[in-house]
Each structure stands twice: as structure tokens, then as C-alpha cells.
Amino acid sequence: MKQRILIFITLSIGVASRFVAQAGEPILLGQSVSMSIGGTWGGAPVPRAPVPPTITGMQFFIADQAPFVTVSYAGGTYLQVDEAQLTNSVGGNLFLAKGQTGVFDFAITNSPGFANVVSKLINGTNEQSSLGGFGYNPDRIVTGGGWYSGQESGLWNLQSGQDLAGCTIKFFRLVVTQVDWGQTYSGFQITGVAQWQIFGFPPPLSPPPKLELYRTPLEAILVSWPTQAVGFVLQCGADPQLGMTNVPTAPVIIGTNNVVLLPTDQQKAFYRLLYAP
To answer: Has residue 161 been placed in a domain?
Structure first.
């Protein structure tokens, strides 16, 4: 549900909006370090895993814990993909083939674990999270990979001690620059290089941003509000009780303010800023 923060201003002469405009574009809230993962995991050869391992593919993930389980066998232990935990992650449903690169966006519409991960990031606790990637063989045994784990502020390059509390996260972006594996002179190597980014809107300003209106000699109204008020849209209408609509005119930035010039073709109008990320 959209959070409604309303600032009403009434003029005896104003403008009524006729079309519905989109809210502002999401901004970059934080990004991870560029991950470089590789090597062979699991120690001694596992009877069910061919040596060198036959890699099926690679996946990158964001989760509140690594989506693996440790399985013991007679000769030691190995890591196996935990399908349930992978489903709760973001990115785990993307399969990357050898040599595949690109930019991939994950939102509520295409990532089953999106809501789970978002709830952990915005709950007001600067808690432990993990992100990384891995390669696996047909038995879903992890044969190469790695991950980063730590406090949210560190993982996402936020200011020290801060987290993403109060933010509206719209999507995660995965930028993959390398996926490769194969035999080397001394054994087997798997490599994945990628970066995660978070896009959305920061918490609304407190106190709410100030909306200012000025008459001009051109039979127009100049409407202004601070550019730091990210995620707000300008709305107007003849009567707030009958509904308000977005002003279709895109603002221009002048100094530290968003500015819109509107014609005065109506005797009375109400104006407000709506927080609608």
C-alpha cells in the first residue's frame, strides 16, 4: 500500500490535471562490492560427484543465509544446494550458462523470494545477510563458488551503522560480467564475477517537503518543491474529496528544487505532494 503524505495548497486561480502521470523513477539505494567467486569446494572427492566436477551452471543470490546444507559422508563433508532456502533468496531462480553475462532485474513479479529478502532488509535491523554465487553439478552438489556475509550496511556500502529501514525497494539488479569454468594445469577452476544493486525510494522526509506556489505575469502558476523529496509526485484537483490526479507536466530542476509551470485555466484548484514510490 502506498504511503500517503499530503500537502494541500489552495489558490483562487489554478490548474486541474487531466492525465495521470507516473511517479518518479527509482534511485540506487545501495550496491555490493564486485563479487569474484571461484575455486573448488567440498574437500576430498565425493563419491557421487565426478572429478573434475561436471558443472551444470551458476547462480547468484541474495539471502538472509547461504542457501546450502552441509552433508556428511564416510570420507568427510560436502555442500549441497538447499532448494527451500534457494527459493527464499533473490536471484536463485536465474540459471547462468558458461560464458553468459548481462544485466538482470528481480522484482516481485519474477522472483519468488523477493518479499522475503525485502522484509529482512527494511525491518529496521542492521542484521547479518549474505550474497554470492555458486556452481553445481547434476546432483546439485556445490563444486565451486563463494559468498560474502556481513551486516547490511557493509554489504550494501551504506553509511556506517545504517540499514535500509523505511526504504521502498522496487527491484534488485544483478550485473554479471563473467561466468566461466574448466580444467586447469593443476585441477579445476570456476569463476563468477558480478555485482548486486538495490533500486527503490528512500524513506519520506520528516517533516514533509514544502510545496510552494508563485503567480507569474504569464497567466501561469510556478510550483516548486525540493529535489531531495524523492518519490513524491505533484497532484491537483478541483476538490480533494472527489479525488486528485497526477500533474502530467514533468518537473525541471532549477538549483535544489523541482519546478513546474502550469497554466491558470481554472478558478479554484488544490495542490498536494503524494509520496507514491
So the answer is: yes
Burial grade of 62 (CB within 10 A; 0-12, 13-18, 19 or more)? buried
CB neighbourhood size of 167 (10 A): 19
The pTM of this model reads: 0.68
> Please, what is the Cα angle at 117 between 120 and 152, to 5 degrees?
55
Domain range for 44 is 27-201
Q: Are residues 160 and 133 in the same domain?
A: yes
d(CA 237, CA 247): 9
Asked, for residue 4, whether it belongs to a domain, the answer is no
Q: What is the pLDDT of residues 15-51, one digit of tens each?
A: 322 222 234 678 898 898 777 777 654 444 555 555 5
Please give the span between the terminal C-alpha atoms of the chain, in angstroms, as a whole number. 10
* Same domain membership, residue 172 and residue 219: no
Nearest Cα residue to 90 out of 231, 199, 204: 199
pLDDT per residue as tens digits for the range 98-133: 999 999 999 999 999 999 999 988 887 877 888 888
Same domain? For 185 and 226 the reply is no
Q: What residue has cell string 554465487?
A: 133
| Exposure letters 173-186 (e unless 16+ CB within 10 A, then b) | bbbbeebbbeeeee
Same domain, 159 and 63: yes
| Number of CB atoms found within 10 A of residue 147's CB | 19
